[in-house]
Amino acid sequence: MAAPAQLPPTRPATLLPTGGPAPGVERVVSRRWGRPQSWTLASYVADGGYRALKKALAMTPAAIIDEVKRSNLRGRGGAGFPTGMKWSFIPKDVPGSTGAPSKPRYLCVNGDESEPGTFKDRYILDNDPHALIEGMAIASYAIGAHTAYVYLRGEFKRQAERMEAAIAEAREHGFLGPNVAGSGFALEAHVHRGAGAYICGEETALLESLEGKRGWPRLKPPFPAVVGLFGCPTVVNNVETLANVPAILDRGAAWFAGLGTEKSGGTRLMCVSGHVRRPGVYEVPMKMTLRQLVVDVCGGPEEGRTIKAVIPGGSSSPVLAPHELDVACEFEALKNAGTMAGSGGVIVMDDTACLVRTLWRISKFYAEESCGQCTPCRDGTPWQEALLYRMENGTAEPGDLDKLISVANAICPFPPMGLGNTICPLGDAAALPVHSFVQKFRPEFEAHLREKRCPFPTPWGRSAGAYGPAAPVARGWS
Amino acid sequence: MAAILSRYPADRKRAAMLPALRLVQEMKGYLTPETLALVAERLGVAPAAAGEVATFYTMLRVTPVGRYVIDLCTNVSCSLCGGERLLRHLERRLGVPVGGTTPDGKFTLREVECLASCGTAPVLQLNEEYHERLTPETVDALLDSLP
C-alpha cells in the first residue's frame, strides 16, 4: 500500500492562543504571542531578544545558576523542582576513567507535552521558539553543555518544523554554533521528534528514547545530572521552564521572584479545557485561585450548569471537588490541598459529566500508556480500567469498588503521595486519580453499582444507549 | 540519512533510530521486518532493537494503513466535548471499527491518546495535520474534501 498522502496545510501557520493572558497580568512567557511573525528572529530581536544571552555570556556559569536559584524558578513540567538547583547538580568536572578529558554534558528540552489536559508548550513552540532557544543557550552555558536536544512529541510536526527553522536562523545569526554571540562558547541544537509515547515525558524515559530505545524509565539514582544522555551529565528541562530563563537574566531574579509567591517565582501558563466557556492557555499569577481562573477568567460552565469537579494539573493529579477550588495555582498550595500543580492542565467537569466514565477514560489512558516495565503498573492499570468499565456499563459486581481501591493501592498506596511501588511516577499517576475520585465522589460510584447502569442522561453518561458501549483495552485481563 | 546521523555522536548511531524509522515509514507507509533489519544494520544494532522500538511507539506502524490516517483523540477533555460521539460517527460513516481501514484503502481510523490540543477539543490528526473544534458536520466536510 502506498505511503499516506502528504496534505497541504489546511490551517493558518500560526496557532494563536485560544485564551491569552488573564486580564491585568504581567506577561512573561506569553508576552509576544500573537504578534505578527513573532516566531522570526527579526521580531524576537526587535523585542529585545538575545540581550539576556549576551549578558549571560559575560557572567560566570556559577553566577547564572545563582541568579536562577534566587529567581525561585521551578520546573513547569510537573514536579516543580527548583531549576537553579537542578543545574547546580551537574558535576563541575567529570574526569574520564583514565584521566582523559571530561565527559560532554547535555541539555535536553522536554517538549513531549503529553499529560492529558496540557497544551501550553505547543503555543510557546508556535509563537516564540526563539525565547526557548535563548533559554537553552543560557542554560547550556551555565551547565557547560555544547549540545542541546529538543525532544518534541511526535505529533508536533508543525512545531518541529518551526523549531528547526528557528534553530537554523539563530545559527545563521551567530546565536548558536561554534561561537555563540562572539563569546567563544560553542553550542549546537537539534530537534529530536518522539513517536507517540506518553511515558517519554518522564525524564529518564525521554533519555532512553533519545538514545534510540523504548521509553523505559531508569531507576534513580543515578540521576540524569550524573548519568544522563549517553551516560553523560545531563539536565532535562521543560519548554516553559527554559522559556522563562531569558526574562530572569534580562530583568533580574528579584523581579521574577516578586511576580510569584514565596517559594515559586514568576507566572504560570495554565491550560483550561473541558466544560468552560472560554477554554485555552492563560498566563496567570501564581496567587490566582483555581476558582478565579475557571470562573472569572474562563467564564465557568455553560448557563444553568454547575461545576462538579476540577482536575488541577493534568489527568495524573488528584481531582478537586467544587468546595476545594479556593486554592492558588501554585506548587505548595496545591500540594497542601492534597493534589499537585503538575503541568498546569486544568480539566473542568460540569454536572452533566459522569465521573465514573471520566475516571474510566483516565484509567484507559494509563493502561494504554504503561510502558510495561513494572508489574504493579503493567498489570494493575488494565485491571483498574476493566473494573471501571464494568461499573459504567452495568456489569460490575458488588465488591468491585473495594477491588478497584485494592488494585490502586497495589500500584500506589494512598496516602502517602508519590511513594508508589513502581520505578517511575506513571504508576502513581494512574492510581492517584482513582483514589481521589472514589474518595470524593463515592456516592456516584455506589449509584452505578446499585442501579447496575450509568444514571447520567448526558452524552458521557449515556454509554450503553446512544452510541454503544465503550471498548475496553483488550489485554492483560479477561 | 547522513543528515540525521550528523546530529548524534559518531559512536551513538543508535540514537538515530526514531528519525530513521520515521523516514522509512514516510517513504514506504509502514515498517516491514526487512526495512527494520535494514535500519538496524545501518545503525549497528540487532534487528530486534529496531523491532522493539517499532512496536513501542504508536506513531510507528508495522501494518499497512490507508492513504488517509485519522487519529481521533478521545481522552478526557476531548470526550467531555464530544470526542466519543465523533468516534462513533466516524465508525458509522466509514463502516469500519477503530483500528480498521476502509476496503478501498482510503481511510484508516484510529483512536489516540491526548494530542495536546485540549483547549480546542475535540481534535483529530489527519496524516499528522491538526483539525480542531470539530463537530460531526465539520468532520464530514473535511472527509468530503479529500481526493
3D architecture notes:
The complex is a heterodimer of chains A (478) and B (147). With 478 residues, chain A is an alpha/beta fold. Chain A folds into three domains: 41-95 and 102-259, NADH-ubiquinone oxidoreductase 51kDa subunit (Rossmann fold, 3-Layer(aba) Sandwich); 267-350, Ubiquitin-like (UB roll) (Roll), CATH 3.10.20; 355-451, NADH-ubiquinone oxidoreductase 51kDa subunit, iron-sulphur binding domain (de novo design (two linked rop proteins)), CATH 1.20.1440.230. Chain A is built from 17 helices and eight strands. A four-stranded parallel β-sheet of chain A has the order 3-2-1-4, with helices on both faces. In chain A, strand 5 and strand 6 form a beta hairpin. In chain A, helix 15 (400-411) packs antiparallel against helix 16 (426-440). The longest helix of chain A is centred in the C-terminal third of the chain and has 18 residues, at 375-392. Chain B has two domains: 2-56, Arc Repressor Mutant, subunit A, CATH 1.10.10; 68-144, Glutaredoxin (3-Layer(aba) Sandwich). Chain B has a four-stranded mixed β-sheet, covered by helices on one side. In chain B, helix 2 (17-28) runs antiparallel to helix 3 and helix 3 (33-43) packs across helix 4. The radius of gyration of chain B is 18 Å and the shape is elongated. Chain B starts with a helix and ends with a helix. The model of chain B has no long low-confidence stretch (mean pLDDT 94). Chains A and B meet through strand 3, strand 5, strand 8 and helix 13 of A and helix 2, helix 4, strand 1, helix 5 and helix 6 of B.
